[in-house]
Amino acid sequence: MADIPAARHALRVLKFVASQSGPVRAATVVRSLDIPRSTTYQLIRVMQDEGFLVHFPEDRAYGLSPLVSEIGSNYLRTQKGSRLAEPLLAKLVKRTALPVVAHLGVLHNGDIEYAVKNAAMRAPSLVTDVGVHLPAHLTATGRAILSVLSHEQVRALYPDVASLTTRNGRGPRTLRDLDDILAETRARGYAVETGEITPDCASVAVAALDHNGYPAAAVGLTFRKMAVDVGIWPQLGAAAQISAGALSMRLRGKI
Question: What pTM was estimated for this model as a whole?
Answer without folding.
Answer: 0.74
